[in-house]
Structures are given as C-alpha cells and as structure tokens.
Design goal:
32% helix; 7 strands; seven-stranded mixed β-sheet; Aminopeptidase; alpha+beta
C-alpha cells in the first residue's frame, strides 16, 4: 500500500506535544528498539520536550495534520565524524507505505548536505522487521555489535549506508 499524500518536514518547537506522544507510542510499540524507556520518557516535563523539539534534529512525517512518523539525524561520540539515524518510528498504520523511506531519505539528505559520506544506525537484533527495512534501504551490517546501555541483554547491530552525491 503506497500512499504519497504526506509530507516530511523538520520538526519545530511547536511540535513538542506530538513528538512526545509519538515517542511514547514508539516505546510502547517496540521497547527493545530504543535507548530510553517509556517510564523514563514519561517523566520528562514539558520544558524538556520543548527543548528536544527545538534543539534535536528531528524530522516528522505528517498526514492529515497528524504526525505519523519521526526520525532524527545526529552525531555519535563513539564514532567521531560520522552521521547517525536515531529514533526512527512509523505508526503501525503507516507501515508498508512510503513514510519510513521518506524519513530515511530526509535524514540521509541532512547528512549529505552536512558533508558526510555515510549514514550509520544501530538496530536491535530482536527487531527483524526494522533490520529488513534498513537492508532494503541500502544499509549494510558493519559487523559491530554492542549491548544496549540500559539493558545489556539487548544486542545492537551497527549498519552503514553510503550516501550518493549528485
């Protein structure tokens, strides 16, 4: 089901409530995929969510004035000089549409415009649907493995996608 009647745009400070709701939904939907927990995120106050919406490099998918997906582009202290895809989530109703592809493309464009040649991400071993999606999007397993900081029983796979110029 490919539906293209949506937009992907940079999040604004005014999106903070919807970003919070989407993040909380993502943590309930696939808790093993994220570095934070639902309980931790629920404790954040409005000021923290506003700051995240304003200062983090979030992109959101919007359909019919509803946020239906999000992703963030950022850096990683463990790997200086690399661009990363973080916090990817698409609502269950949007899965199988072009929404996730568009979010990845937007973060990849940010990375390319910022001068990076590759885009990296960590994905949970137990989140097979996400791994398969990222592989279809051109990400390859780097061989790097690590445990999730908040739960050492959850293993992450690092993946990389070469970015094309031009």
């Amino acid at each position: 089901m490919l539906r293209d009647d949506f937009v992907v745009r940079a999040a604004t400070k005014g999106d903070w409530r919807n970003l919070r709701d989407l993040r909380l939904e993502s943590l309930l939907d696939t808790p093993e995929a994220y570095g934070s927990t639902y309980e931790e995120s629920l404790q954040r106050g409005a000021a923290q969510w506003k700051q995240m919406a304003r200062n983090f490099n979030y992109y959101v998918a919007e359909r019919n004035a509803e946020l239906t997906g999000m992703a963030s582009g950022g850096l990683n202290e463990r790997f200086p000089g690399t661009a990363w895809l973080y916090g990817m989530y698409v609502t269950p109703e949007e899965r199988g549409t072009n929404t996730a592809r568009a979010l990845v493309a937007r973060v990849a464009r940010w990375a390319l415009e910022a001068g990076y040649e590759d885009l990296y991400l960590d994905v949970g071993v137990g989140v097979a649907r996400a791994r398969a999606f990222y592989q279809r999007e051109g990400f390859v397993d780097t061989g790097e493995r690590r445990s999730l900081t908040r739960d050492a029983s959850l293993e992450l796979i690092t993946m990389r996608r070469a970015l094309r110029r031009g």
